[in-house]
Amino acid sequence: MFRFSSVLAALAMAALALTQQALAQEISGPLVIAREGSFFVGGRDVHSDTLSTVPAYAASGTVTVDQMYVRYQVPVDSGTHVPLTLIHGCCLTGKTWETTPDGRMGWDEFFVRKGHPTYVIDQAWRGRSAASPAAINSVRTGKTPVDQLPTVFSAAHEGAWAIFRFGPEYPKVFPGMQFPLEAQAEFWKQMVPDWLASLPTPNPTVPALSELAGRLDGTVLISHSQSGIYPFQTAVLSRHGIAGIVAIEPGACPAATDDMTPYAGLPILVLWGDYVDLSPRWAPRLKACREFVQAANAAGGKAELVMLADVGFRGNSHMLMQDRDSLQIADWLAGWIDRHVIR
Amino acid sequence: MFRFSSVLAALAMAALALTQQALAQEISGPLVIAREGSFFVGGRDVHSDTLSTVPAYAASGTVTVDQMYVRYQVPVDSGTHVPLTLIHGCCLTGKTWETTPDGRMGWDEFFVRKGHPTYVIDQAWRGRSAASPAAINSVRTGKTPVDQLPTVFSAAHEGAWAIFRFGPEYPKVFPGMQFPLEAQAEFWKQMVPDWLASLPTPNPTVPALSELAGRLDGTVLISHSQSGIYPFQTAVLSRHGIAGIVAIEPGACPAATDDMTPYAGLPILVLWGDYVDLSPRWAPRLKACREFVQAANAAGGKAELVMLADVGFRGNSHMLMQDRDSLQIADWLAGWIDRHVIR
């Protein structure tokens, strides 16, 4: 028995080495781009009298908010590969999908190399998508009371630690952790203030995603964490342009008691890393997502929930797109999309 | 005389058409990238007890601020081409250098196609470079008085109009204006809140630029408007890694009475668009930059001030990297860099 399992282990190691070799070959060499660039989707003009308190810039006038920044690359050999839209989570920006904290290739480039036109967004009021300082300056100039200040929060390293499931609590680490914690200083630099709680529901990112999907005429919306619910809310607005949904560790799935009509026939993957049952924050969300998948399928859905550990990946954090095995996971995900999503 | 000038005009038109044809060829076809990605430079950890007012995120803990987001592409045929660092201006982000509002190629891609490794940054506390909400939440929770709110401003469309020199005042347009005003709605979406006035001098972007220049071991710092002074301040910190400075319509040049030692022997170009003398905002800054160039050269400098109109480009706004002739200007600038900057 000992010998047999040793052989199995050796075979598994050899298979993994082969996969890694193939992957290494796939991601080396020049990246050949047909076209790339950036643009905004959505946005509305707002008049305000408290845009500025500095003399060089007028207090009164018009600014544009709610737009969503989109950066994209289309490879030369995209063929029938479906465009992917990468939607980051709380307190982060589109940087989430770029070069990992320890300097490896991000999912943004990897998917382009796999042939997918790839679109990376910054959520509305975050990163390169403008917020407005009007509410802050309104309080500062005495026009409105202090309790009218916007709700803007940052996630501290210490608190984010357990949320991102690097370990049960700061600074403890789960055994076998795949997140490159030696590069955590670079990771913390990715985090930005989050205006979500000051914004309406659905978040302005949602109609912007709907407009983007319409323009692309077929895209898989790939969300993460806080943005997990956005693709589902987008599908409720309109199914136009949505070729599939991949929700990576969603903060919330639709409730199992919701109307499942918007999701009928739509390829849906809800994807989870490791240690989820050890997390009081994530375990209930996983449970609720299981119930959603069941309800969606009972109503003619094509939804699937996958624990990465069940398909051979162990030790994954909540930031699995940056874990050490991030490209192996992306490769698996590209395969899932190829098998399930018809453009 | 009439006939002669007609011939001259026809020749000039033919030359321009030829240039445009050559340029069109140069920017068509696939873009071949050796490597690309993003990272942060600089940054410091700060403890705060007012990071959040929402229950899901702790009020106390550590966040990282002052870091500078950098996105880059290195072409396969970079050869001896010097790396370029593109530094945006007020109320904007690195988006400044990407796809223009009317959907044409940005300078970021153009310079890569010309063979230059190209680095695009977001200034500290802007875009994908984190701000901190601690001062806002400190006031909101009654820990500090209202006058301790951060100074954050947005430039309104109406006020920005004259600053960007689309015309003398909103919504008047200078005759011959090259900015694609039909796409102004897309342009306004680029504008974000600006924390500059809450930050120390020099701006944290400056030491970050110094670190980046050191890492690149030779880069031309290309600034715009608000960031115009940054490359000069960077040179005062250290000349290490600075191969040249291009200040596009700088908000300020160093004073002519400053110590000119940091700039000795350094290739410096101060570049201006059109209508500058018609602008009460910009005319005095142009004058001060002329005095700086004179002082720098008197002290062994290699500084040059160029009005675009004097080298054949007319009708350029303050946002000349987005004007209709933006790629012709970039092509001219690439030529200037080739002639003046030795890596």
Notes on the protein architecture:
The structure is a homodimer of 343-residue chains. Chain A is an alpha/beta fold. Chain A is 30% helix and 18% strand. The first copy, chain A, has nine helices and ten strands. In chain A, the strands form two sheets. Chain A has an eight-stranded mixed sheet with strand order 1-4-6-5-7-8-9-10, sandwiched between helices. A two-stranded antiparallel ribbon of chain A has the order 2-3. In chain A, strand 9 (267-272), helix 8 (283-298) and strand 10 form a beta-alpha-beta unit. In chain A, helix 6 crosses helix 7. The longest helix of chain A is centred in the first third of the chain and has 25 residues, at 2-26. The radius of gyration of chain A is 21 Å and the shape is globular. The relative contact order of chain A is 0.13. The mean pLDDT of chain A is 95. At the A-B interface, strand 1, strand 3, helix 3, helix 4 and helix 5 of A face strand 1, strand 3, helix 3, helix 4 and helix 5 of B. Strand 1 of chain A pairs antiparallel with strand 1 (31-41) of chain B.
